[in-house]
Amino acid sequence: AIRNDPQTRTVPVIMISSRTGQKHRNRAEALGVSAYLGKPYAEADLIGRIEQFLTEKRSQLAEKTSQ
């Protein structure tokens, strides 16, 4: 549903799951998950993913304003 709504389709979705197998990661990817972290996960990994998404969004916004 989040990917079908034009207002939310670009919102990054981070899935955190205790299921770390490849089939679960593939399923999450098929559902449109932006990042998949298996439990236990390092706090730095989660923060890194969030920072990555923020950096990408800032770059996109800067590109739009420079055009």
Number of helices: 2
What distance separates the N and C termini?
A: 32 Å
Amount of beta strand: 5-15%
Shape: flat
> Major sheet: size, sense and barrel closure?
2 strands, parallel
Order of helices and strands: EHEH
Strand order of the largest sheet: 1-2
| Residue windows where pLDDT falls under 50 for at least 5 positions | none
Give the % helix.
40-55%
Radius of gyration: 14 Å
Average pLDDT across residues?
94
Number of domains: 1
Beta strand count: 2
Structural class: mainly alpha
Can you give me a brief rundown of this structure?
Helices cover about 50% and strands about 10% of the residues. With about 70 residues, it is mainly alpha-helical. It has one domain.
Keywords, separated by commas or semicolons:
mainly alpha, 2 helices, 12% strand, 67 residues, single chain, flat, two-stranded parallel sheet, 49% helix
Describe the structure.
Helix content is 49%, strand content 12%. With 67 residues, it is mainly alpha-helical. It has one domain (14-66). Strand 1, helix 1 (22-30) and strand 2 form a beta-alpha-beta unit. The model has no long low-confidence stretch (mean pLDDT 94).
Topology:
Blueprint: E1 14-17, H1 22-30, E2 35-38, H2 43-66
Parallel strand pairs: 1-2
